[in-house]
Inverse folding.
């Protein structure tokens, strides 16, 4: 798989995960609070009281990033990829850190699944940012050819 294909696949992965979280939290906040991530697991409600405002904000935030990652995947603009990934990491790193510290309220399997999934949404944008950073050029495709 060439670099552009890998970057595009990573961006679309981020679109899908942000869309999943975003739609569920924005349009079904109570269900998200009690049922995320699904499959009989519950990762949000053990951490505190329900707050519809905060849950719907999480949904809107994730949908905004889904749109940004989708735009980056469609254009493959190097600067947009870097900006989207760097911005998302500003959120994803503290979010991951918080859950590492507060995971004792979950069952062991949920600790592994939650922290593994949160690590993925740190590692993928970090790798995409690094890949785009290492490429020469100002805009256009992430590959070395001019666009």
């Amino acid at each position: 798989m060439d670099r552009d294909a890998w970057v595009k696949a990573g961006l679309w992965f981020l679109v899908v995960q942000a869309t999943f979280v975003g739609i569920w939290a924005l349009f079904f906040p109570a269900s998200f609070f009690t049922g995320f991530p699904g499959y009989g697991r519950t990762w949000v409600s053990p951490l505190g009281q329900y707050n519809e405002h905060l849950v719907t904000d999480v949904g809107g935030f994730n949908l905004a990033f889904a749109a940004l990652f989708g735009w980056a995947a469609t254009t493959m603009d190097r600067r947009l990829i870097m900006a989207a990934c760097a911005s998302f990491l500003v959120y994803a790193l503290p979010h991951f850190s918080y859950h590492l510290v507060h995971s004792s309220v979950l069952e062991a399997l949920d600790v592994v699944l939650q922290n593994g999934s949160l690590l993925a949404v740190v590692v993928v944008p970090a790798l995409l940012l690094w890949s785009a950073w290492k490429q020469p050029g100002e805009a256009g495709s992430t590959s070395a050819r001019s666009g």
The chain has a mean pLDDT of 92. The CA atoms of residues 10 and 135 lie 16 Å apart. The first strand starts at residue 37 and ends at 38. The chain has five helices and two strands.
